[in-house]
Amino acid sequence: MIQRIQTVWLLLAALTAAGVFFTDLFRAQIIEDTVAVTKNIDATGEFVLLLVAIPMVLLPLVAIFMFRNRKKQRGMVWIGFLVTVGFIALSLMIISNYKNDPAIRITSGSYHIGSVLPVVSLFFLILAIRGINRDEKLVRSLDRLR
Questions:
Q1: Whole-Å CA distances, 82 to 76, 86, 137
Q2: pTM here?
């Protein structure tokens, strides 16, 4: 059928989601035995985050090739949206648990670019859904003209 701008948005969503594999989510300075040590939290270091990050990248890529069935494509994008929201919630929970651990003395901590990339991916998924809906409207209007 029609495959247009949503391909670009889905590809950008997959690329930004894949960025969490290469960047840190959170970086903290902790004190271990009177020595300052840097601890990084990333998607590859936490097994649960890794399990959620893989479908977060793959779902938009699979949705690109479902252009012939816009209803399935839209459903796949919504599932990707929910998985991305789950990744954000899970990463915030893991970081919060790490920051509140009484056994670890954190002197300073900061969020890094990896924590922003899933939010950008959500933005691209929303734009892809809008593109799919526009194509659906266009096809319906063309069917009325026939």
A1: 10, 6, 24
A2: 0.87
